Amino acid sequence: MNVFEAHFQTFEDPEGGTPLSSRLAALREELSRRGVTGFLIPRADSQQNEYVPPSEERLAWLSGFTGSAGLAAVLTDQAVLFVDGRYTLQAAQQVDGAAWTVASLVDPPPESWLGSNLRTGDRIGYDPWLHTTSAVERLQAACAKAGAELVPLDRNPIDAIWTERPSPPLGPVSVHELAFAGEAEDVKLGKIRAEIARLKADALVVSDPHAVAWTFNIRGADVAHTPLPLSFALIPKDGRPIIFIDGRKLSNATRDHLERNASVAPAEQLTSTLGQLAAQGTTIALDAATAADALSRLITQAGGKPLRGADPLALLKAVKNDTEIAGTRKAHIRDGAALARFLSWLDREALNGVMTEIDAVEALETFRRETGALKDVSFPTISGSGPNGAIVHYRVSRKSNRRIQAGELLLIDSGGQYQDGTTDVTRTVAIGTPTSEMRDRFTRVLRGHLAIARAVFPDGTTGAQLDSFARQYLWSAGLDFEHGTGHGVGSYLSVHEGPARISKLGTTSLKRGMILSNEPGYYKSNAYGIRIENLELVVAADIAGAEKTMNAFKALTLAPIDRRLIEPSLMSPDELDWLNAYHVRVRETISPLVDEATRAWLAQATEKV
Amino acid sequence: MNVFEAHFQTFEDPEGGTPLSSRLAALREELSRRGVTGFLIPRADSQQNEYVPPSEERLAWLSGFTGSAGLAAVLTDQAVLFVDGRYTLQAAQQVDGAAWTVASLVDPPPESWLGSNLRTGDRIGYDPWLHTTSAVERLQAACAKAGAELVPLDRNPIDAIWTERPSPPLGPVSVHELAFAGEAEDVKLGKIRAEIARLKADALVVSDPHAVAWTFNIRGADVAHTPLPLSFALIPKDGRPIIFIDGRKLSNATRDHLERNASVAPAEQLTSTLGQLAAQGTTIALDAATAADALSRLITQAGGKPLRGADPLALLKAVKNDTEIAGTRKAHIRDGAALARFLSWLDREALNGVMTEIDAVEALETFRRETGALKDVSFPTISGSGPNGAIVHYRVSRKSNRRIQAGELLLIDSGGQYQDGTTDVTRTVAIGTPTSEMRDRFTRVLRGHLAIARAVFPDGTTGAQLDSFARQYLWSAGLDFEHGTGHGVGSYLSVHEGPARISKLGTTSLKRGMILSNEPGYYKSNAYGIRIENLELVVAADIAGAEKTMNAFKALTLAPIDRRLIEPSLMSPDELDWLNAYHVRVRETISPLVDEATRAWLAQATEKV
Question: Which residue in B431, B365, B368 sits closest to B402, CA to CA?
Answer without folding.
Answer: B431
